[in-house]
Amino acid sequence: MAQQYDVPIAGVTEIEETVKKDLESIKGLKLPKKRVDRFKFKDMLANFKFDYGSVMGGHHYDVTRMTKAARIESSYDGKDPLSAEDIDALKKGGRIGLGYS
Question: Could you tell me the superkingdom of the organism this chain comes from (predicted)?
Fold first, then answer.
C-alpha cells in the first residue's frame, strides 16, 4: 500500500532474503556436544532455590549495614569489632587490618 502512494519505507526491507542467506550460510554448522554437568550444579542450584528462595545474597551479613547492637550481638567477645572509621573505610572500598600477619 505504501508503494502505491510513493511513501518511503524506513528501516529494514527485504528481510526474507537476508534471513534466507543467513540460514544457507549456517547449514553445515555443527554445534558442540551438550556438556555433562559433572558437579550437578543445576540440581544443587534448584535445591538451594527450593530451600532458600530464588534471591541469593542480600545485606543480612553486611557488617557495614548492621547496627552497632547487632554487631555486638554477633561478636564472640561482646564488643563491637568495628570502629566508625573502619566502617567508613569499608564503605569506600578500603580494607581494614584485623591484626593477623
Answer: Eukaryota
pTM of the model: 0.38
Q: What is the DSSP secondary structure assignment for residue 79, as one 8-state letter?
A: S
pLDDT at res. 101 = 45
Rounded Cα–Cα distance for residues 74 and 98 (Å): 17
Residue 32 lies in a domain: no
Query: What is the pLDDT confidence band of residue 26, given thresholds at 50, 70 and 90?
Result: confident
In 1-101, which ranges are continuous DSSP H helix? 15-25, 41-52, 68-74, 84-91
Return the C-alpha cell found at 43. Answer: 540440581
Residues spanned by the domain of 67:
41-92
